[in-house]
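Email to the structure team, subject: Histidine phosphatase family protein model.

Hi all, the expression group asked for a predicted structure before they design truncation constructs. Nothing fancy, just the tokens so they can compare against earlier work. One-line instruction: predict Histidine phosphatase family protein, return tokens.
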Amino acid sequence: MTTTIGLIRHGSTFWNKEGRVQGITDNPLDEEGLEQAEAIAERLSGETWDYLYSSDLLRARQTAEAISRRLGMEIAGLVPGMREMDGGLIEGTNEQERVDRWGKDWKALDLGLENPDFAQQRGRQAIEELAERHPGKNVLIVSHGALLRHTLRGLIPGLDVNDLLKNTSITRVVKTDGIWSCELYNCIEHLSG
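Reply from the structure team: attached below.
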């Protein structure tokens, strides 16, 4: 039996454009982000999906709501385990502000950021639970860039996740006989129109 999970990064926000760390700050999509959400929704309307879930943060929920409207399917649930990694004290800052505030070696300081290993475990557990809840089904999850990359690193060791996930990109992973594989990574062909 094969279970397919479509992992979607939310649409763009003003903070994305300003290079600000969002973390768990509950920012809305900007105008372009709303258009991107409609574009991924249109793309997904030509595919078969059984369930739709979202992170509980606003930017992911707004993206999921566009998909929900276009596909005529309810959001099956909000999944706190798929929310973005906590950015601690650096949330709301850009690189220059971090250097000004804490120096060029700010990454070496304890600024309250969520541990990547914890985030990877949290995201992986959420995906595994949804796959177990819906065996053999096609499940969409709208989430966040950093969390998805760390989660994928844990779900599929050896997968190259160095290419940062783009806004409303879809990554499709498949679980067959207990083993995860990646069929599609960071695809944004729906935005090329």
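DSSP finds six helices and six strands in the chain. The CA atoms of residues 19 and 94 lie 5 Å apart. Ping us if the truncation boundaries need rechecking.
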